[in-house]
Design brief:
By secondary structure, the protein is of the alpha/beta class. The chain has six helices and 14 strands. It has a six-stranded mixed beta sheet, with helices on one face. GO terms for molecular function: hydrolase activity; metal ion binding; sulfur dioxygenase activity.
């Protein structure tokens, strides 16, 4: 499998490129609007053809590039089936693999950050979206979030994967790029060790985090598979404008 990790600095989002060497087909996981040209260039530079984009959930902190990539490259849009978005080409459900050439991707329903959140298992790695971060996890205080559901998703599902499985999250804010299931089970300060569900719920209920500054634009835009509002305030335009820099993993 061809693999590349790309980083979008405005929302600190990782996008993942997976490609099949035999067929030349490729998929982008969680592509971000300001970086779509960079990501498509990465696909083309590797001699691949983008056939699918996958969003792990309806994001609150950035606009997906799914629609613009479909327009520019003809890729299909895979979205969690329970969201029932009209713009979905491939309804993603647990137990039904997504196939991109010889690359098999197994969707895993991991609710808690949002009610319809999915992680993606591909070979020896898992793309955990916002459910499980490196030494952390996604918030549970908006978009039908549920701390108990997230606890069950991470400890009951993700932590049941082999310990050597590589963990690739949707975000990191401290320059980290990869972890493992064994590492997160042992030392994740929110969900690892012997943390009980009651302790986790209390912790998540008292994070005191500010209201996400882009959520009121991101969620409706992402329910249309990536549409930037025309009335976006000046201080938020960087979320939809082309990236000035393109650091890559």
């Amino acid at each position: 499998m061809i693999f590349q990790q790309l980083f979008e600095p405005v929302s600190s989002t990782f996008t993942y490129l997976l490609g099949c060497q035999e067929t030349g087909e490729a998929v982008l996981v969680d592509p971000v609007m300001p970086a779509w040209q960079r990501d498509l260039k990465a696909v083309n530079t590797l001699g691949l053809r983008l056939v699918m984009t996958i969003d792990t959930h309806i994001h609150a902190d950035h606009i997906t590039a799914a629609s613009v990539l479909k327009r520019e490259a003809g890729s299909r849009i895979a979205i969690p089936e329970p969201d029932a978005l009209p713009c979905t080409d491939v309804p993603m459900r647990e137990g039904v693999p997504l196939q991109v050439g010889g690359v098999r991707i197994d969707p895993m329903h991991t609710p808690g950050h949002t009610d319809n959140h999915f992680a993606l298992v591909a070979g020896d790695r898992v793309f955990t979206g916002d459910a499980l971060l490196i030494d952390g996890c996604g918030r549970t205080d908006f978009q039908s979030g549920d701390a108990r559901a997230l606890y069950d998703s991470v400890r009951g599902k993700l932590f049941s994967l082999p310990g050597e499985t590589l963990v690739y999250p949707a975000h990191d804010y401290n320059g980290r790029r990869v972890s493992s299931i064994a590492q997160e089970k042992q030392r994740n300060p929110r969900l690892g060790g012997d943390r009980t569900v009651e302790e986790f719920v209390e912790l998540m209920d008292n994070l005191g985090l500010p209201y996400p500054k882009f959520i009121d634009y991101a969620v409706p835009g992402n329910r249309r598979c990536g549409e930037c509002p025309p009335d976006l305030p000046a201080h938020l335009r960087e979320y939809c404008e082309e990236m000035a820099q393109s650091p890559q993993g």
